[in-house]
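2024-03-11 09:14:02 INFO worker-7 job=invfold-0412 stage=load source=structure_tokens
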């Protein structure tokens, strides 16, 4: 039997932890390097759509996900001022039937800690920031800010939107500010309240939208409030904000939104950045995964889902091709790059549709939503049925590319 490759993972976020878990499940020796001094996540919610849930189930996390999650009834589009429904995509009964897995809302910290539970303790190194990558024909080497180095057969950059590994492979290029910022907050509640429906609610307004949904079994509501803005002045990626700033930015919005925002205690504002799709993610023995490869706007709720799918497919190809890392990385890209590129571009497009400024354009859009909803409610609104349908756990490496080693 051929030796399993030694894999180094840079970044212990959602994608890095998922990759470590998927490789460990297949008997690989991995090492994961995280620059923060503890594994952690921002205080916010995350939507795990059926395509991501299929992977989490294959990683053995379904019980934990069910305990910590919330099952939304539907994705509902609403008018920002009147709360009138623009579209309704049923989820709770339809997702398992149509896509083979539920749609789950969860706190990011809960999701991350269940992924980190798959990472063997001995394989994680914290407080270690990668500063560079070099490679020759035989190995790849990551170097770190403390002067240490790590040598591996394959190195994976799962180090987020401002990826050091990506810069080392393809040159320094700043991510693109998309013209959108958002406020993120989690509001504790005593179970489902009358001003927040048990759905993934998309409130569509001029030059912005607000998404609300329950997490933690219905004990908290997550808010993502997006606004278009010409400039993002903060140097950092996120910055503290306040309830008053948030209320001022959404004056005139429906009273349910205002009632929810009035309960906000802690809020951060974020600049939203993305990049154009790439033509390749790999060079030699090094490749990229998640936001390092394909950062996207969160308008289809897919950034973490794509990182989780990438992780599973990469673990599958590395396992299938034995020592032939080159074919494994080629096979990984062939499967993942077209899909993630489409999601990146469609997420940008959704922003334009959600944020239409003129009432006439909004009325036309809502008529289209209504007609599409009558024909097939899964194909209106976000129009993400093709995203949810995909099953990374059913992926088979191409026979033509299979290693003969
Ligand atoms: C407002 C908002 C809402 C979102 N909602 C959703 C949603 O509902 N569903 C969904 O699927 N996605 C959502 N996303 C997207 C999702 O958050 C990201 O796509 C996802 O976190 C990407 O995971 P990642 O592991 O690739 O990167 P990250 O989560 O950014 O992790 C990268 C890790 O690498 C570490 N790191 C960075 N540089 C180095 C270095 N040099 N050395 C060592 N470690 C390093 C970082 O500390 C971090 O831990 C949302 C994003 C935003 C902004």
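2024-03-11 09:14:09 INFO worker-7 stage=emit residues=405
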């Amino acid at each position: 039997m051929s030796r399993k490759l030694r894999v180094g993972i840079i970044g212990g976020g959602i994608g890095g932890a998922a990759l470590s878990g998927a490789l460990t499940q297949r008997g690989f020796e991995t090492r994961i390097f995280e620059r923060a001094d503890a594994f952690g996540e921002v205080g916010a919610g995350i939507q795990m759509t059926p395509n991501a849930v299929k992977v989490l189930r294959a990683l053995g996390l379904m019980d934990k996900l069910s305990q910590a999650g919330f099952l939304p009834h539907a994705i509902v589009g609403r008018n920002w001022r009147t709360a009138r429904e623009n579209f309704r995509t049923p989820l709770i009964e339809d997702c398992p039937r149509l896509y083979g897995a539920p749609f789950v809302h969860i706190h990011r910290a809960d999701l991350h800690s269940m992924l980190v539970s798959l990472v063997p303790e001995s394989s994680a190194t914290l407080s270690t920031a990668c500063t560079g990558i070099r490679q020759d024909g035989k190995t790849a080497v990551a170097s770190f800010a403390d002067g240490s180095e790590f040598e591996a057969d394959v190195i994976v950059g799962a180090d987020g939107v401002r990826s050091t590994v990506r810069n080392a492979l393809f040159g320094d290029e700043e991510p693109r500010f998309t013209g959108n910022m958002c406020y993120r907050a989690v509001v504790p509640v005593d179970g489902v309240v009358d001003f927040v429906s048990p759905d993934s609610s998309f409130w569509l307004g001029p030059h912005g939208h607000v998404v609300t949904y329950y997490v933690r079994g219905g004990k908290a509501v997550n808010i993502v409030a997006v606004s278009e803005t010409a400039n993002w002045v903060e140097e950092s990626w996120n910055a503290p904000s306040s309830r008053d700033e948030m209320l001022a930015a959404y004056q005139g919005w429906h009273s349910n939104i205002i009632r929810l925002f009035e309960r906000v205690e802690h809020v951060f504002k974020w600049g939203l950045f993305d990049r154009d799709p790439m033509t390749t993610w790999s060079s030699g023995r090094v490749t990229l995964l998640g936001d390092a490869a394909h950062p996207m706007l969160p308008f289809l709720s897919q950034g973490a889902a794509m990182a989780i799918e990438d992780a599973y497919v990469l673990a599958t190809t590395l396992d299938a091709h034995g020592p032939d890392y080159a074919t494994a990385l080629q096979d990984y890209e062939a499967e993942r790059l077209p899909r993630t590129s489409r999601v990146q571009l469609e997420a940008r497009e959704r922003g334009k549709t959600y944020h239409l400024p003129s009432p006439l354009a909004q009325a036309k859009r809502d008529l289209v939503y209504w007609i599409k909803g009558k024909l097939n409610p899964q194909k209106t609104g976000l129009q993400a049925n093709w995203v949810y349908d995909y099953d990374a756990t059913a992926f088979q490496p191409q026979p033509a590319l299979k290693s003969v080693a």
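2024-03-11 09:14:09 INFO worker-7 stage=report msg="Residues 325-354 form the longest helix (30 residues)."
2024-03-11 09:14:10 INFO worker-7 job finished
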